[in-house]
Every structure is written in structure tokens, then in C-alpha cells.
Specification:
Elements: E1 3-8, H1 15-28, E2 32-38, E3 41-42, E4 46-47, H2 52-61, E5 66-70, H3 72-75, H4 79-92, E6 98-103, H5 108-120, H6 123-134, H7 139-151, H8 162-165, H9 169-184, E7 189-194, H10 212-222, H11 233-246, H12 256-265, H13 279-290, H14 295-302, H15 309-320, H16 325-333, E8 338-344, H17 346-358, E9 362-364, H18 376-394, H19 403-406, E10 410-411
Parallel strand pairs: 1-2, 1-6, 2-5, 6-7, 8-9, 8-10
Antiparallel strand pairs: 3-4, 5-8
């Protein structure tokens, strides 16, 4: 048994994901696959287009064997924290041979060099970082600029365009996956596959390998039928069924009124309880709320060079879910002692048995199983997961609680 694992969002599962999965299996010779998948809210600071069980079904129907939930605490964070959480879970399974990820660079040596610099933080790099932060740049911008300054003096790397590398989303995530592997001293072997087709943030369809961003935009602007050629037929069929059930797909816009109320009710200093909110941002959020007529307008008005849009969107998701800074820090210091299954096929059942034999981690198949355990950190992870799910369904005009208890993992039997 050779096992390849992926950190994914599948929002939705598209042709590029299918290509990446098939290429990963070819390169590794994997016999089994695992996806560590974000659930109700995703890394860029938005609700998933469809619920997590629908995403798991898309994954299983398109060839993934086992889908494990990436807890909400990790799923809507910076690339560093997102990758740290996902790789920690993957490593704790004690069965994974390969982690397969995409990047625009397709050069694992250069990506790994950057990851080691960020992990070790040499003195000269830290000096560059401090200088850029003092000039008012955001932390991600400062870190990229500091890396470029640090690396440009290396004659062996004179041909490498690090400035461009550090602007590309998949490269940034790849760097963080490698950094997490090094920090954990993991034996999992990284496999890097070059991204094909559109870039991560590309908003236009390209008729073959369009980005998830472009696909979501087309769905909202032109309807589901406009992306039929951009996604596998299994994905299209599952998305169609979801739409027929809910008559809509989810988006951040669906939470504008709720967020308007929540932010209005806060005093500016109370917003400091949230991760990534500093004293310069509290009044700005309150002031720009009064001038904004929808979610896009609010995000545009708040964001600046120092406060990029993705940071603002993640903050808004945290406010929506009342996920405070101290709770994030506490749970990052005490990672989950469990995994939760969202979907599986017959191969996946073999993986679950192997995990139970190889790892002390608790396996939760039915959500109610968590009640049998007393670990306080598990209960905190579960508490925030349930809350995120309940809030997710509010966006679909379905104010139904306890969907985590009601909906079972998707099981595909041959």
C-alpha cells in the first residue's frame, strides 16, 4: 500500500483538481489517496460554495478514497497556519507516504530553500523583515521583500525570480507545507506538481483548466450551466443536485446583514479580541461599515496596502463565528487528537483500519461519537466546528441547527 495525501478545498472540484490527482498517482505509484479538506469556510475567508458533505461527495466520486475534515480553527487562516494544521493532521495518521501539492514554479528545490529560511530565520533575514514592517507593509509583504533582499546576494540563485515566485498563491502554500514538514521532522515525502491552466486568482474561464475563482464567479454571474465544460461530469451532477435543493450557492454576501449587526454592536476596542486585528484596524472597520452597502464594498473599503483583502475577509469570518484570538492560539498549541471522516469508498475503509492500527488518534465517523471523549481540546475543536456549520447554513437561508449530527459521511460502495 502506497498512500498519497492532499490538502484541498475542492471549492468546487474542477478539471485542474482531476489532473493533479491523476498526475500525483502516476508520479508516486499511490494505491490509496487521502484528502485533508476544509469544511464550511475556506482559507481565503469565505464560505464554501457548497457544504462540506457535498464537497466530500465530489472528491470521492472523482477518485479520492478518504476525505478527512480540516477543522474550522485551521481552515480559515493565513497560509502558514492553514498548512501547519493540515500537515500536522496528515503526519499524525502515521500512514502517509507522500504529500502532493501544486505550485506555479514546479521546482521543489527552490521552494524548499525558501521554506528553510523562513523556518530558521537567519539574522540578516530578520533584520530585513523588521525594516519592512517598520515601513508599514503587511507581514506577508514584508516577509516576501525580506526574502528577496536576503536571497539576491546568493550567486547560485541569481537566475531565480524570487519576487515572482513569492507573489503566486500555490507557491506560497507549497512553501508552508514544506516548512511544516521540516518543523515536525516528518518522514512524509513532498511531491510538487506544476500548476496547469489558469492561475489561482484568475477570474476568467479558459475552457479547460480554469481556476476555482473563475468557476465560482461564472456560476454566480451566468449560472451553473456556464461551467459545465470546466468541471468533471460527476462534479456538475452533484452541484446541480445541491442547487436544486437550496436554490442558491453560498457566498460571503449572504452574511452582510449579520456582520453589519455584529460589528455595530461592538465597541472598537472589543474587535481587538480577534486574530489579525490591531489598533489601527478597529476604527477603520467601524467607520467603513457605515459607508458600505454590500459585502464587496465593505471589504474594498476596509482593505489597504497594509491590510490586504484576504486578511480582512478572514477577520470577518472570525467575527461571524465569534472565534477569538486567544482561542486560536490555545488550539494551535494543542492540536486535535482526533480526525473526522467526511467521505470514503472501499479503499477508504482500508485506510481507516490502517490508521486505527498505526496511530493513537481518535477516529470520528459519526459526529455524535465525540460525546464519548473527555479531552477538553477536542471538545473545543468540535464546538467551533459545529458553530461554523450552523452559521454556514444560515447563509443558505436554512437556519437549521445540528446539521453535523443530522448529515452522515458520504460512503461510496462498489
Amino acid at each position: 500500500m502506497k498512500i498519497a495525501a492532499f490538502v484541498v478545498e475542492y471549492n468546487p472540484f474542477h478539471n485542474g483538481h482531476k489532473y493533479h490527482l491523476e498526475e500525483s498517482i502516476k508520479l508516486t505509484g499511490a494505491t490509496h489517496t487521502i484528502a485533508i479538506m476544509s469544511g464550511s469556510f475556506v482559507q481565503r475567508g469565505e464560505p464554501s460554495l457548497v457544504d462540506k458533505w457535498t464537497k466530500a461527495k465530489m472528491a470521492i466520486e472523482n477518485g479520492i478514497d478518504l476525505v478527512i475534515e480540516l477543522p474550522f480553527i485551521y481552515s480559515c487562516q493565513s497560509a502558514e497556519l492553514f498548512a501547519h494544521g493540515a500537515v500536522h493532521i496528515m503526519n499524525s495518521l502515521n500512514i502517509v507516504d507522500y504529500i502532493c501539492f501544486g505550485s506555479e514554479l514546479d521546482d521543489i528545490k527552490s521552494i524548499d530553500k525558501i521554506s528553510k529560511i523562513l523556518l530558521e530565520e537567519p539574522r540578516e533575514f530578520k533584520e530585513h523583515l523588521k525594516r519592512y514592517l517598520s515601513k508599514g507593509h503587511s507581514f506577508p509583504q514584508s516577509r516576501s521583500l525580506a526574502l528577496i533582499d536576503y536571497l539576491q546576494h546568493d550567486p547560485l540563485d541569481s537566475c531565480q525570480d524570487y519576487k515572482n515566485i513569492l507573489k503566486q498563491s500555490n507557491n506560497i502554500l507549497a512553501i508552508e507545507y514544506l516548512k511544516a514538514l521540516h518543523r515536525l521532522k516528518s518522514k512524509i515525502q513532498p511531491i510538487c506538481i506544476g500548476r496547469v491552466g489558469s492561475s489561482y486568482n484568475d477570474e476568467s474561464l479558459n475552457m479547460k483548466f480554469s481556476s476555482a475563482t473563475a468557476i465560482r464567479k461564472a456560476i454566480f454571474n451566468s449560472g451553473l450551466s456556464s461551467v459545465e465544460s470546466e468541471i468533471p461530469c460527476e462534479s456538475f451532477r452533484i452541484l446541480e443536485k445541491f442547487y436544486n435543493q437550496y436554490k442558491m450557492f453560498n457566498s460571503m454576501e449572504n452574511y452582510f446583514s449579520i456582520l453589519r449587526y455584529l460589528i455595530t454592536a461592538y465597541e472598537p476596542d472589543e474587535l481587538l479580541n480577534y486574530f489579525d486585528v490591531d489598533s489601527g484596524l478597529t476604527n477603520r472597520i467601524k467607520q467603513q461599515l457605515e459607508r458600505s452597502y454590500d459585502m464587496d464594498c465593505l471589504i474594498d473599503n476596509i482593505s489597504t496596502k497594509r491590510y490586504p483583502k484576504t486578511r480582512i475577509k478572514r477577520i470577518l469570518v472570525h467575527i461571524l463565528n465569534r472565534l477569538y484570538r486567544d482561542k486560536i492560539i490555545e488550539l494551535y498549541e494543542n492540536p486535535p487528537s482526533y480526525i473526522r471522516i467526511l467521505g470514503s469508498n472501499e479503499n477508504g475503509f482500508s485506510l481507516i483500519r490502517k490508521i486505527s492500527e498505526s496511530s493513537p488518534i481518535t477516529i470520528i465517523n459519526r459526529f455524535s461519537d465525540h460525546k464519548k471523549y473527555t479531552d477538553k481540546y477536542m471538545k473545543n475543536f468540535i464546538y467551533h466546528e459545529k458553530k461554523a456549520t450552523d452559521i454556514y447554513f444560515l447563509g443558505l437561508n436554512k437556519p437549521i441547527s445540528n446539521m453535523d449530527y443530522i448529515i452522515s459521511p458520504y460512503i461510496k460502495k462498489i
